[in-house]
Amino acid sequence: LMATSLQSSLSPPTLPLINHLSPRSSSANSMLKRLVVSSSVRHFLYLHNKSARKRSYIHIPSLSWPFSVISRRPIHSLKVLAMAEQSQKPTSQTHKHTNRLAAEHSPYLLQHAHNPVNWYPWGEEAFQEARKRDVPIFLSIGYSTCHWCHVMEVESFEDEGVAKLLNDWFVSIKVDREERPDVDKVYMTYVQALYGGGGWPLSVFLSPDLKPLMGGTYFPPDDNYGRPGFKTVLRKVKEAWDSKRDVLVKSGAFAIEQLSEALSASASSNKLPDGLSQTALRLCAEQLAGSYDSVYGGFGSAPKFPRPVEIQLMLYQSKRLEEIGNSGEAKEGLKMVLFSLQCMARGGIHDHVGGGFHRYSVDECWHVPHFEKMLYDQGQLANVYLDAFSITKDTTYSCISRDIFDYLRRDMIGPNGEIFSAEDADSAESESATRKKEGAFYIWTSAEVEDIVGEHATLFMDHYYIKPSGNCDLSRMSDPHNEFKGKNVLIERNSTSAMASKLGIPIEKYLDILGSCRQKLFDVRSKRPRPHLDDKVIVSWNGLVISSFARASKILKGESEGTKFNFPVVGCNPKEYMEVAEKAASFIRRQLYNQQTHRLQHSFRNGPSKAPGFLDDYAFLISGLLDLYEFGGAIFWLVWAIELQDIQDELFLDREGGGYFNTPGEDPSVLLRVKEDHDGAEPSGNSVSVINLVRLASMVSGNRSDLYRQNAEHLLAVFENRLKDMAMAVPLMCCAADMLSIPSRKQVVLVGNKPSVEFEDMLAAAHASYDPNRTVIHIDPTDAEETEFWEGNNRNIALMAKNNFSADKVVALVCQNFTCSSPVTDPKSLEALLSKKASSSV
């Protein structure tokens, strides 16, 4: 149904080179059926034409053999890995080659600054050079922690012969997809439309006016396995450009026209049909339940991605079912989620020694991961584990959230509070090693573990399934080419209580032993060469993490007094997490926000990037700021969120057609402006925006509140067909649509002096239970700034604060359907009030 566009660590992307045919040909018309897929927009394009799924061949002009359109034949990964492990040249002040990328800030671009390829960054200088020389552009897109990007660099871009072909026949441009997601979106969408999938590195050939001519992903350097090598591809593209240029250019322009039309759909009405939001929510939950893995947890099969939006939907649907009295079905969905979260936490995708989660597992049992760590995963996973704790009060889940937070605080936060983007999968096995290997930093031999752990080695090795022969044997997909032979990826296969009971050890002591052993491994691991850190600061990803840190500051106050934590969890006071969130938000405000124009820049590294803020930057940051405020932050954060929402509407909102475009549309070099809806590894900006608008509408009143709801309704109408036909592709949007359909959102209003311990305790009580359809408003009537804000934006709140203020108490009111509960003044009473059914609480 959906093609994943991230590579397995064990096999490269295998999309072939392909080009457009003349728009007048029948083949072109068939291709366009795949381009114009529906009126809704998505990150992964669904192929409606069943015949397009069959193995087929077409010819590129001047090429003498067919290219498989839907080839999935892998290249032998041992051979490719060996290529990737070629000797690395020692760092030196002098380099044989230096290109224009040396002046850039992006870590990915800097990795290529000393290739013999004459790389240009994306920009007018490169475009002008292509026009002047009248040659096509070779565009290579990747990111700094991308394993197969490293492979293609070693094999091709460091090769003098390949570089000569590129330099003689093309203008070569490098793009960091994390720095320029708008550019990546254009050409990834093109490749996905043709093949039904994509990946990085993305390799696309363009005309000098930036229209796509041909595209693919990873190419090996030489012909092999019936597919062309990169050098052959370059020669054949050169021949096609010389002999069939008109056909290529016309078809490239035609493709962009068709994609633009398909990916910027407008709504046919101003709101969804009645009942569709509930239908989509139910349908999505049913589809996910149908793909549930009852043996290993998760939804779908290998490779397994921890797609947090799926967890969010199942938790949300379970809550809604509980509210209408369908507790049996609610518990069944919740059981799936909790088991999945447990399996992920026990698996090798979780870094048991250092905390945090890797990108995905290559097998079905969450064991052998692709070892890179991405910030957007950490923020979203921390939030769903917090939700699980809110529902169950089981500290198993709160400890995993803390595990992620403490990993981020230790390894991913800069000196000024900024939060970095990613850590690579590859690293050297030792300081003297001349090559890097996937997972080298994280894996262990049994002899290493025995030597480091000492007296508790047997216990520890049994617990984490560590064996002399290596443990990557749980699935045929875990290590098909024996690349991790003799190595171990830590995984918990049995329950901790069962293991402790078997040894006759109290569970607390057993956990202490495991923690001390992990600490010893961590200390030794810290001396290993670390994976590359991408210290770029991306606004959208920071927004996701700001949200989770802010929420943790109150939700984790629900942990039982005396809860004990073991390494790598530090066990700090939860209020420290609010400080982390505020520092990260302050960094963005200081470095990536223009006080005059009120606009954001997308990213920061040694200064702001050239790229403007995109929809995701605004939407995710607004979401994080709303959580900062609702979980106890200053009114300042709410004011800024409202201001950013105004700018988001100004820059991205399609006022006539509905929905938000992904870019401001001000850069003529970005040929597509799309309305994103797919909730994948990251949620879509449109899905998050609906939730933001619902939350804001419940805080302010009058015309502004009405406008927020109208924009949300119009947005959802754009994606009506998507919600009807492919709900599983948009799980967060399904939640958002249901949130909007609720006639009256529950409001918790806290009134009192702050800061104070009493106020913090009442805030924790307000957030103690899981309820995505609740807004928390807190106001100190003695604070002039707060009073002024509410007087201007919601006089009902200001009046409520005035009438219920008590100098020595914090007063809480729960309001819904224009009715408020009697005031309560202690946390337990507030928790009890919020735990009641809505009908009896007002």
TrEMBL record:
Biological-process GO terms, alphabetical: carbohydrate metabolic process
Source taxon at top rank: Eukaryota
One GO cellular component term: chloroplast
Domain Spermatogenesis-associated protein 20-like TRX as annotated: residue spans: 98-258
Membrane-traversing stretches: none
Gene3D superfamilies recorded: 1.50.10.10, Glutaredoxin
PANTHER family assigned to the protein according to its UniProt record, in alphabetical order: SPERMATOGENESIS-ASSOCIATED PROTEIN 20
Protein name: Spermatogenesis-associated protein 20-like TRX domain-containing protein
High-level lineage: Eukaryota, Viridiplantae, Streptophyta, Embryophyta, Tracheophyta
